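Q: What structure does this chain adopt?
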Amino acid sequence: MNSTIELLAPRYDIAWYPWAVQYFFMIAVSYASLWLAAPALIFGKKAWLPTARLALIACVSTTLVAPVALLADLHQPLRFWHFYAYANTHSWMSIGSVVLPLYLISVLGFAWLAWRPALQAQQQAAGFSGLIAKWLSMGSGSTPKVLVAIVGLAALLLSSGIMLYTGAELAIVKARPLWNTIWLPPMLVATGFIAAAGLVLVLNRVSGICSSATTRQMLYVLLAFCALAGLIALSWLLDGLNAHVGSVAAALESVRYSPSWRSTALWGGITGVALFASIVFLVTRSAKRQPALFAWAWLLGLVAIHMGWMFRWVVLMDVQHVARNSAGFHHYGIPAGSSGILGIVGTFGLWLAAILLIDLLLPWRQAQQGGQLSANDQDASRAPLTANKGAPSHG
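A:
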């Protein structure tokens, strides 16, 4: 008897859109920037103060924008209240819905305490900036350093919760072997620090601060976390090659015959090695040559930001191309609308608007660990941010 068997594979829409990439990227830059601000603003390391000021504005701006991207990824943003009305302690997303608002509040409180002395010094300024300073500084009382440290430590603790839940909510998905691995959460953290350090390098350049100490510190941070990311990637690969069962072995098997995944792995490896080698070249130059070379370090910062964002794109979007219930790979074309290119550009536009508003209204360049501003900082806080622009004075 002759018979025909038909196999029908249903079409599945992707579960997470580029909004999720934006959220995972922004929140990673947020918590990593907070840790980069901690040495000076929490633990009082004066040598890190220029870096901390740049890192804090990066932290606050990305912390404000990340939840917007997360709400957009819910597809129906107004249903966020379901997380609280139907709480589930076994769901990492549900846990994250509690940790994220607490983290947001702690970061804003920490930033306010760090900026408050400069706001108080700016109260007598004319115009809108003085009015904003009077309103935000909430009085003329001093800002205790111990209070700054306590709120900062609380923010660091909650940031650890963000690291844990954002990594765990991917790693627990057994249906996706490329997600279901213990190596993914630490890799998300490592690439988050790479992107944050890169952003600080870029802000150091575009803000006009151009601190050589900040450049040197961020290059060493990049060096450490590039090495860590490479070690994690190598461990993940060896785990899959040496194991015949397990999520890593299944992940490698699922992309074994995909030219696009081979090119992605090649791109990631070459970019990482090139970034690491470039940093080693910069930090090993003689003291006389370093200042000239450091002027171009912001380009490495752009590469680092690119690495952090593209890693999340590969993990969150490209992994969804791998079919779960049939053979082969599913094609995904990025739409032009709000669920695609417009959403990506719009999120970065919103972040740019946030950082420009902070630059316009808040004296972030004078952030410090409580107490009172020095005379030099008071003069700088009263001066407009564009005071250093224009033609130089000659006599």
